[in-house]
């Protein structure tokens, strides 16, 4: 039996079922997704421990693309091999992608951007993100030093809001952790986490690089809208750091000036993408559907997420090889604290600033937060109740 088959601990159908549940219920954007994943994969199912999950989140923060989707792909691979990663992506991504394609078909006939229920879903994202930040802060920034790293990271992220600033802050926190965090306090990394072979990792990196460099050349040699679309979405998925909302300006620059989609259509899709569960990168399916129907949606979606899968497959062996080294673990402690700070900054901007406009919005947010934290209601129940509350606010006020 080869090494990879020995390390598999589940089936692709098991992974698909769990990720589909998350894909149908994970509202709130990439910050909240990390909290949902932690609750499902770490606390409820115990597929990996808290330390392994924190290390995995830190690793995916370094990679371009949607960090939450990459965390899900990684867990799927570690649970059931390469096909497990695909199953995890499909379950988590397809529900929101299908919803946005349907929305794309209706967007020219109906104006849904100002719907009260949509605003309610934006409001519930504040409560979900706050719950995620609180839970991760207690684990990843429990002492004064790491708490200070988190707070300083949040402040700098808010003052210097660029994708590359996040990458620089994460790297700086890792260096600080490597140099100053005490090695004796570092918990031992868990054993038994399966790794991919280095040969597969090398092939994955080669494919990633060939496509990134070769697609623009093919686009010039063989002009085609389909090839141009695949190149544009693949390039955005390969180069956007920070994930989530950071992808929006890059996508806008690719599809609006070229005339593939109007600015009003783009903004309508952005609003809808925030109202559905799953990754914000499924906005690509909406844009592809506006351009070329269902086939366009499929091509745009695959091109957008393919770089993430290749990067995860190419990087997981590195993670497995070095995560147990004391110096790397010290760096990861600093990185994890910085991740908490970045999530804290995201709680304010864009989550809070886009959802909370008055006292009524804030009151609904407090109610949703209490239902999550005090009453321990399932997130999907709170999402439904808050959407109804948003509709009532729109009618009454």
Automatic annotation (TrEMBL):
Gene Ontology cellular component?
Answer: plasma membrane
Q: Does the keyword Transmembrane apply?
A: yes
Subcellular location(s) per record: Cell membrane
Transmembrane intervals = 82-105, 117-137, 149-180, 200-221, 294-322, 334-357, 377-396
Family membership, please give it: Belongs to the chromate ion transporter (CHR) (TC 2.A.51) family.
Q: What is this protein called?
A: Chromate transporter
- State the annotated membrane topology for this chain: Multi-pass membrane protein
Q: Which UniProt keywords apply?
A: Cell membrane, Membrane, Transmembrane, Transmembrane helix
Q: Origin, by domain of life?
A: Bacteria
Under the GO molecular function aspect, what terms does this record hold? chromate transmembrane transporter activity
Q: Which PANTHER family match?
A: CHROMATE ION TRANSPORTER (EUROFUNG) (PTHR33567)
Species annotation: Paenibacillus sedimenti
> Major place of localization?
membrane
Q: Which Pfam families match?
A: Chromate_transp
């Amino acid at each position: 039996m080869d090494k990879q088959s020995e390390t598999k601990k589940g089936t692709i159908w098991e992974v698909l079922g769990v990720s589909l549940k998350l894909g149908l219920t994970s509202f709130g954007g990439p910050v909240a997704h990390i909290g949902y994943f932690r609750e499902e994969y770490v606390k409820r199912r115990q597929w990996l421990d808290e330390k392994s999950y924190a290390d995995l989140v830190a690793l995916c923060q370094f990679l371009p693309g949607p960090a939450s989707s990459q965390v899900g792909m990684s867990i799927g691979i570690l649970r059931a091999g390469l096909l497990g990663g695909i199953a995890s992506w499909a379950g988590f991504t397809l529900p929101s992608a299908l919803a946005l394609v349907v929305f794309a078909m209706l967007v020219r006939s109906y104006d849904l951007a100002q719907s009260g229920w949509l605003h309610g879903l934006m409001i519930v994202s504040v409560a979900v993100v706050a719950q995620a930040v609180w839970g991760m802060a207690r684990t990843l920034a429990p002492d004064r030093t790491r708490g200070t790293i988190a707070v300083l990271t949040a402040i700098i992220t808010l003052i210097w809001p660029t994708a590359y600033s996040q990458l620089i802050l994460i790297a700086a926190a890792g260096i600080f952790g490597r140099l100053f965090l005490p090695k004796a306090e570092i918990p031992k990394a868990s054993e038994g986490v399966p790794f991919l072979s280095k040969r597969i990792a090398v092939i994955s990196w080669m494919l990633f690089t060939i496509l990134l460099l070769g697609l623009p050349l093919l686009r010039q040699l063989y002009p085609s809208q389909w090839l141009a679309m695949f190149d544009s979405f693949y390039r955005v998925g390969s180069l956007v750091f920070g994930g989530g909302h950071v992808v929006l300006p890059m996508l806008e620059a690719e599809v609006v000036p070229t005339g593939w989609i109007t600015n009003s259509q783009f903004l309508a899709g952005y609003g809808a993408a925030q109202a559905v569960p799953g990754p914000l990168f499924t906005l690509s399916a909406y844009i592809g559907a506006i351009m070329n129907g269902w086939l366009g949606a499929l091509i745009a979606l695959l091109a957008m997420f393919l770089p993430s899968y290749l990067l995860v497959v190419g990087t997981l062996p590195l993670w497995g090889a070095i995560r147990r080294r004391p110096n790397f673990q010290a760096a990861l402690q600093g990185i994890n604290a910085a991740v908490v700070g970045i999530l804290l900054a995201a709680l304010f901007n864009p989550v809070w600033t886009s959802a909370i406009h008055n006292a009524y919005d804030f009151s609904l947010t407090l109610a949703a937060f209490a239902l999550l934290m005090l009453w321990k209601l399932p997130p999907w129940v709170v999402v439904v109740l808050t959407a109804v509350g948003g509709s009532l606010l729109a009618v009454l006020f």
